[in-house]
Amino acid sequence: QVQLVESGGGLVQAGDSLRLSCAASGRTFSSFAMGWFRQAPGKEREFVARITWGGVYTYYADSVKGRFTISRDNAKNTVYLQMNSLTPEDTAVYYCAADKDRRNIVVVVSFADYDYWGQGTQVTVSS
Predict the structure, then answer these.
(1) What is the mean pLDDT of residues 103-122?
(2) Per the count of CB atoms within 10 A, which of 26, 47, 62, 111 is most buried?
(3) Which residues sit opposite 79 in a β-bridge?
(4) Under a CB-based contact definition with an 8 Å cutoff, are residues 24 and 2 in contact?
């Protein structure tokens, strides 16, 4: 079992940056691939970014490519999402998620393929 706790959300202006963190409990964190998703009001949860278990491979949604960077520190049981050049369209609740079965697969974008979820952190970008 893995528990995930996100932090780092907040209210920022367009063009600003934020770094989200997701701290995981449990000794198996380093064996999981990790992902970030987001959900805006009235919209479905959408994939944002993914990183494989060793941190070598990453994958991004087209909407954030070039602006967001996912990384992880397995020694700290933490995954990060650095978000730059934020726009109001990035406003959402951001969730981190762990995938225990496909740790070496780079492209996994369905939320159904992730096994553990955090409670989410709100990111609001004003224009």
Answers:
(1) 95
(2) 47
(3) 22, 72
(4) yes
